[in-house]
Amino acid sequence: MALNLDVDLLRTFIAIADTGSFSKAGEEVFKSQSAVSMQMKRLEETVLKSLFVRDGRINRLTADGEHLLDYARRIVRLSDEAMSAFSEPECAGVVRLGTPDDYAERLLPELLATFARTHPMVEVDVECLSSGILREKTMAGDLDLSLHTCQGGVVYGEIVRHEKLQWVTSPRHCAHEKDLLPIAVSHPSCDWRQMVLDALDKAGKPYRIAYASGNSVAMSAAIQSGLAVGAMPSMSIRPGMRVLTEADGFPSLGEFQIELITKPGELNGAIEALRSQIMGSVSNFGHTLEAAE
Q1: Is pTM, for the whole model, over 0.85?
Q2: Distance CA 169, CA 237 (A)
Q3: Domains in the chain, ordered, with CATH?
Q4: Which residue in 10, 22, 149, 265 could disulfide with 72, CB within 3.0 to 4.6 Å?
């Protein structure tokens, strides 16, 4: 008789793969570290394969684990879609969602495609603006939901993801080797811009702003053309970009958070449904793209 894959075990397995840690995975799925360990023992016994190998403090996937991960993500996603479709079949309406274009480009395609399958009668209106403006519009009720960058300070909503900000450059150009570093940054109110300038000032590294734009596509073009060095979250790094580290003479930029803000007041079913979808999809977003070294 064929054995069944337990969706709850797969959900925990995905959390470990994304965090690299049994304890952090436990926080994601609300289980103790010992419960997570027991679940993974059961999963390995089910598939008759070893799924993890210890690498220092990090739990890395074996080749069999990597193979299972793709199936696990699809199984969990389909399970969530099925439950959502049957639990909220009558959900309809319009949801106003705000996000910076960086997140719209990387996070929204899969998220909205999944949401459209489970909630075909809900219309999602997306507005791409800077994080500060999104925060104001959502708190004023002009947007129902918004994703934005949160780097220290007051938290107005719920933290749904932690991201590392990284230096990136073109592997075909030498902008990063110049004594007066040319940098590409966003508008003055951007948290990433301030993280970049603070890191350079603290390190005493001379720089000049060679390119400024609030558009992520334009920023990427400036970086990939060798016009300047820039900074991007790990999930947004494109193939063909080179990541620069402290070994290359670049100071660490640290991490920031992605925050989901919900408008004040009562929420309808459509808003609640998209909010739930965002909470799950963004926090469990897969591994970042490989960057050229």
Answers
A1: no
A2: 10
A3: 7-87 (1.10.10.10), 92-293 (3.40.190.290)
A4: 10
